[in-house]
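hey so i finally got around to running the thing on that chain from the lab meeting. sorry it took forever, my laptop kept dying and i had to restart like 3 times. anyway pasting the input first so we r on the same page abt which one it is
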Amino acid sequence: MNRRRWLVSLLVAAALTALAILLGPLGPTRSHRSASSTPPSSGPVVTTTVATDPSAVESTGSSVPGTLAPTSGAFAATSVASQQVAAGTAPGRLLDHVPANADGSLVRIRYSSVGSAGTPIAETGLVAIPPGTPPAGGWPILSVGHPTVGSADICAPSVNTSGFAGAAQIFTQFGYLVVMSDYEGLGTTGPHTFLDGHSEGRAVLDAARAARQLDVPTTDHLTLWGISQGGQAVLFAAELAPTWAPDLHLVATVAEAPASGGIELFRHVAATDERGFAVLAVAGLGAADGLDPATVLTPAAQPLLAVVEQQCSEAVKQAAAAINGDLVDLAALATDPWAAAIAAQQLGTIEITTPLLIVHGTADPLIPIASSEALVADYRSLGTPVEFLSQSGAGHADVALSSLTAVVAWLAQH
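ok and heres what got predicted. didnt touch it at all, straight out
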């Protein structure tokens, strides 16, 4: 395929992808913290004994045909998977996999990573396999950071594939093997550590490593794309990639409307119609750091924790809208240990040496564009080759569609 035809195919596929995302369960997001083996300098260092030597991780290419037969029984396409793994299991190891559709082009995987507590856990994700014959050397990998779906297991993209399977498969039409992590605690036992960027970043990278162990030829070339919570996830992944996944060759990263801004973002979200997401964020931050959400949620907001555990983001938003009065005690949130937990989630403290594009809409009602403008300035001060695309009039979700042509052109350059 010549370059012109490739660009046209990419544009059409990306347009369909954007539409699939906009029509799916796209949700907003905010900011937070967690423990990583290589966290930003502003956060506390929590060490782990998990092996990170790439030689200990089975992610150097496709497996011998037949050695990874689909599993059955406890791990299934729609079940809640066990989060437990054997002590010392290297991150990025494919543990189980099972077809998620009739022709096997979608695969649900269970793989090892390291959670917020700094210990080995299992996570799940969705892999979309490209049709046709792979190019010489295998398919490059696109690891997608999905936007907010909620914290209940029923919301996980690999469990409820209706929202994201189409988008994942469309990305395959322009030559990527696509993997989408559910993130920690979504689709597996244990709480979802919503917006713990360190855990999300590891999840995005380890999902890519695990996907390479399927019986499908792949290269080590990795592109990252994410929006909202997923924008935060891929930025953390890009920061962590050189130390966490040196066996992968990061090519480029696109983050659209990424969750950033610390306590200021909490204040902003708590005063909007999207304030239910502040409760989601408090619950996720509490799960990541062992903090009690009840210490910063108002009495009126306490019943929302059950909604967070059992239902998806839209239900949380609607339940929050039905409550009069404040949901979050912002003064308590701005006091340690919560303030320290939020500050430790700061992006833009580690240089990203590969090309980076951050996209944000000027009319985003959830995450102000000023958050991304400040983030871009932080990355530039570190020497990161970052480009910023401001989309006039675009909101939080529709920025993916309004920026489509420019993002496609940028990806083509890289």
